[in-house]
Write a structure and sequence with these properties.
The chain has about 375 residues and is mainly alpha-helical. The protein contains 14 helices and no strands. The chain folds into 3 domains: about 90 residues, Methane Monooxygenase Hydroxylase, Chain G, domain 1 (Up-down Bundle); about 110 residues, no CATH class; about 90 residues, Methane Monooxygenase Hydroxylase, Chain G, domain 1, CATH 1.20.58. Helices cover about 40% and strands about 0% of the residues. The chain starts with 12 loop residues before the first helix and ends in an 8-residue tail after the last helix.
């Protein structure tokens, strides 16, 4: 009998509590993860909620300073400070785009602007933190990662995947050589899970239902392998070969006494940072698009470019087409469900560009591009 599907984002608390604190995970299971420098956010929701000063009241000046600059880093700012630049270079979510001279506070949305102001005031009250002091350390920062109040259950940690990037690169024999038969089986099915496959196996169903990125939407009878891209197709075959080499007939699911204890994460060391080529308009958050460049797009591209602005802000799409498209982007981290999303997260440039793209899209087709 099939398990009732869990609504997207409703996670099993014991599992979520562990993977929200990446640094702790890496300390507890150093042999199961390949990276020891991929962490997360100090304030995961600072781009779409107002952070109360009480949430950082006990934080030291260094942590407050980093939390403030985290907001700039999320918007692609580079830093003059070597201390800050090295720190954010270690974060899997960071995509450095703009020099300090190119960056403007006008790029920030109202939430970010208010949170920067609050954090600046708090840091000033603590006497300000002096960056790049000889002998500086990141040790204290790790203690505060992901511990702020109001942390979003939609924050997706790469360490909740066996291979976080199995949809964007070809795995190698060396990658799979470290896997057990159970891990190879799970990693193979992880690729199916990305596309909403509903598992009949209780073992797999329970495992993926505990992941806040999983949303089971497609029954096995209606699922088609055509949804897989070239990376996924090749990786499924590679993982299957590894699984069957270790266990003739494959790993036996739903055997009494199965456990998830020895399932590791082997992906974060390979997470690649996005480049301008990963976007239709990589800078649509910070400059006004022109009629000439928008009018040259196809109807589909106009729709995707408009939703790219939403995706950059962590919007969780309802359309499977947009889920598939943006899910293949290394820079996309779905954090905000549609019902909780507000246009207030956009700055003036983003709002103007959304309007321009929508105008052209709907001038070509009164109903806009039809998503599947």
């Amino acid at each position: 009998m099939k398990k009732t599907r869990r609504p997207f984002g409703a996670a099993m608390i014991p599992v979520c509590a562990v993977f929200m604190i990446t640094a702790v995970l890496l300390v507890m299971k150093p042999s199961r993860a390949q990276a020891d420098n991929v962490y997360g956010y100090l304030l995961p929701t600072s781009s779409y909620t107002y952070i109360d000063a009480s949430a950082v009241a006990s934080w030291p000046a260094q942590v407050v300073n980093y939390a403030k600059n985290e907001i700039y880093a999320r918007n692609g700012r580079r830093f003059v400070s070597t201390e800050l630049q090295n720190w954010f270079n270690m974060q899997y979510w960071y995509t450095p785009i703009y020099s300090p001279e190119q960056f403007s506070d006008s790029f920030l949305n109202p939430y970010e602007t208010a949170n920067v102001r609050m954090l600046t005031d708090r840091e000033a009250a603590l006497g300000m933190y002096a960056l790049d002091t000889p002998g500086y350390s990141y040790d204290i920062i790790y203690q505060y990662l992901g511990t702020s109040s109001g942390i979003s259950p939609y924050y997706v940690n790469p360490d909740t995947y066996i291979f976080y990037d199995s949809n964007t690169r070809y795995l190698t024999d060396a990658d799979t050589a470290v896997l057990s038969a159970q891990e190879a089986c799970y990693a193979k099915n992880e690729i199916y899970a990305r596309h909403g496959y509903i598992f009949v196996s209780t073992e797999l169903s329970d495992y993926f239902n505990a992941k806040n990125w999983y949303w089971g939407t497609v029954d096995a009878s209606g699922f088609s392998a055509s949804v897989f891209n070239a990376y996924e197709t090749a990786n499924i075959e590679l993982l299957k070969n590894r699984e069957f080499a270790l266990a003739p007939g494959g790993y036996a699911l739903d055997q009494r006494g199965y456990s998830y204890q020895n399932i590791g994460s082997y992906s974060t060391g390979y997470v690649t940072q996005a480049t301008s080529g990963d976007y239709i308009f990589y800078d649509s958050a910070v400059r006004y698009l022109t009629d000439a460049e928008v009018s040259n797009l196809s109807l589909q591209q106009m729709c995707y470019a408009r939703n790219e602005i939403y995706a950059r802000r962590g919007y969780i799409f309802q359309s499977q087409e947009l889920r598939d498209y943006f899910g293949s982007k290394t820079w996309y981290y779905p954090t905000v469900p549609a019902q909780s999303f507000s246009d207030q997260v956009f700055n003036n440039v983003e709002m103007t560009n959304i309007g321009l793209l929508k105008k052209y899209e709907y001038s070509i087709n009164p109903n806009g591009y039809q998503l599947y």
